[in-house]
Design goal:
Elements lengths: L1 H14 L1 H19 L6 E9 L12 H8 L6 H12 L2 H11 L2 H5 L1 E5 L4 E4 L4 E2 L4 E2 L13 H11 E5 L6 E7 L2 H38 L5 H23 L5 E5 L12 H32 L1
Antiparallel strand pairs: 1-7, 1-8, 2-3, 4-5, 6-7
Helix pairs in contact: 2-10, 4-8, 5-8, 8-9
Length: about 300
């Protein structure tokens, strides 16, 4: 019985082949035209490598336990890069980026980019580029209004990062309607994370050096003085590296670039998927008509 119903349905659908042909002919140009109303998205990428530091000679056995006891940690560059990766996606880093570079208008108020004139087009109901005036209150905490936390979520939709656990390389990318802004944002992100971690490590090293020098002046025990001396050398090296190096946490292997071709949308894929969904929808519609007519006949 079920096999007979299936064959009847197939015959019914085959009789409707003209409708499939019509839907196919209409769907291709329809989805093709619709896809051209979508803004082009450009992706700038970069490859980073965690900076390898040389911490000098290995400290004496037991120094790790001693440093933990006095409240200091041995400098671990792998922890430093892992911390940076976590911080890159944090809300605090986003706020630092907004304050440092003032790119918020290009994140939430941009409608499009004119490739012919290289002009940015803003949504004037959000931001007035002529008067440099915001039309919305980003500090509002009302759930119905757009906030900086919403902007952070939008930023994370554009910003992607991953790490190859085999070689340690870090891969960053940023999507944007303007290829120049995509490249600029990625440059800013790389610069800022190096600066933030560098300043944090400088403060930590200075504080540690002040403490260690004080401890050395108060003890005459040789073993303890050796441990303290090694820690002084490590923190001094960290401080020197922070002063002279811009690439404190990550070195740039493949720098960000201005992409020439858009990465999204893939218009041929939109057309193909649109055609498939249209044909599937038509099949469901014909199946519904078939079973309704069959039900009426059985009554």
């Amino acid at each position: 019985m079920e096999k007979s119903v299936g064959l009847d349905l197939l015959r019914f659908i085959l009789k409707k082949k003209k409708s499939y042909l019509l839907v196919g002919i209409l769907s291709i140009p329809l989805f093709g035209v619709a896809s051209f109303f979508l803004n082009n998205i450009y992706t700038s990428t970069s490859v980073l490598a965690p900076v390898k530091t040389t911490n000098g000679p290995n400290p004496p056995i037991g120094s790790s336990s001693f440093t933990s006891l006095i409240g200091l940690d041995m400098i671990d560059n792998s922890d430093r890069s892992e911390e940076a990766l976590v911080q890159l996606r944090s809300y605090a880093f986003f706020l630092d980026w907004v304050e440092e570079f003032g790119e918020l208008k290009n994140l939430i108020a941009l409608k499009g980019w004119d490739s012919k004139t290289n002009k940015l087009i803003y949504n004037t109901s959000i931001y007035d580029p002529v008067k440099n005036d915001w039309k919305i209150d980003l500090s509002s905490r009302k759930e119905t209004e757009y906030s900086l936390q919403d902007a952070h979520e939008d930023f994370l939709q554009s910003f992607k990062l991953s790490k190859n656990r085999d070689n340690g390389f870090v891969y960053l990318s940023i999507d944007h309607q303007s290829p120049e802004i995509a490249k600029r944002w990625l440059d800013q992100v790389i610069f800022l994370i190096n600066e933030i971690i560098k300043e944090k490590e400088k403060e930590k090293a200075i504080s540690s050096l002040n403490f260690l020098n004080g401890q050395m002046s108060e003890t005459n025990l040789t073993e303890i003085r050796e441990v303290l001396s090694d820690l002084v050398k490590q923190n001094t090296q960290t401080l020197m590296l922070a002063e002279i190096s811009e690439e404190f946490v990550f070195s740039v292997i493949d720098p960000p670039f201005v992409p020439e071709e858009h990465s999204k949308p893939v218009r041929i894929l939109i057309i193909i998927l649109g055609l498939i969904f249209s044909l599937v929808g038509l099949t469901i519609f014909h199946s519904y008509i078939f079973f309704i007519s069959k039900l009426k006949k059985s009554e």
